[in-house]
Each structure stands twice: as C-alpha cells, then as structure tokens.
From TrEMBL:
Organism encoding this protein: Anaerotruncus massiliensis
The organism's taxonomic lineage, starting at the top: Bacteria, Bacillati, Bacillota, Clostridia, Eubacteriales
Protein's name in the database: Uncharacterized protein
Pfam families associated with the record: BofA (PF07441)
Transmembrane segments: 29-49, 61-82, 88-112
Record keywords, A-Z: Membrane, Transmembrane, Transmembrane helix
Xref: InterPro entries: BofA
C-alpha cells in the first residue's frame, strides 16, 4: 500500500510546477516527507478509531461519509470548477480519513491548482 501511495504521490509531484525547478535530492526528500506524513496521519486516524468503543462501526461510518463526500465533489465539479478524480489515492484518503480527508484533498487542490 505504501509503495502504491509513494508512486501516486511521486506522479503528483511531477505534475505540479513547484517541484520542477528543484534538484532530485530535494524532490526525494519532499516525497519521503509526504509519504511519512501520510503514513503518520493514517496511523493517527486508525488509533483514534481504535480508541472509540466501536472500531468497525466508526471505520465504516468514516469510510461511508468520506466516499459520499468524494462522490459529491466529483459530481459538483462541473459546476464549481474544482473536481477530484476518483483514483486510488483519493478513494484511500476518503475511506481512511473520511470527510476531513476529502476537505484536505480539496484544500491541496486549491493551493496547488492543476
């Protein structure tokens, strides 16, 4: 899973012009930091769900609301101009992180454009 996440993040970093002018060492360090941060956020989210008394119910509810929000963003993208394509990274973030994950994806989309 982390390998797929790393490959998807590296393809995202290649598409944004912010990373084009940087040296390969800076790109690798940035991708390592992004991968570590994504892993840490996923572990924190799973720990928070585990601490609740109903782990599976909380995980299913978080996944359901996150994917419903992602679907709503995809459908409303033609009207708002900001759309998230449903790929492995976005669906994973929506499933694991729920609604805050989709909001974070939208914020990153607004900051970096593309």
């Amino acid at each position: 899973m982390l390998r797929v996440l790393f490959l998807d993040i590296s393809s995202v970093a290649r598409t944004y012009p912010v990373m084009e002018s940087k040296s390969p060492e800076v790109k690798n360090m940035a991708l390592s930091i992004l991968t570590a941060a994504a892993g840490a956020v996923c572990l924190i989210m799973l720990a928070a769900l585990w601490r609740s008394r109903h782990f599976l119910r909380s995980l299913c509810f978080s996944a359901l609301t996150g994917n419903a929000a992602l679907l709503a963003v995809c459908w409303s993208g033609t009207f708002t101009g900001i759309a998230l394509s449903p790929n492995l990274f976005t669906v994973g973030a929506a499933t694991l992180l729920g609604l805050p994950g989709v909001i974070s994806l939208l914020v990153v989309k607004l900051i970096f454009g593309a």
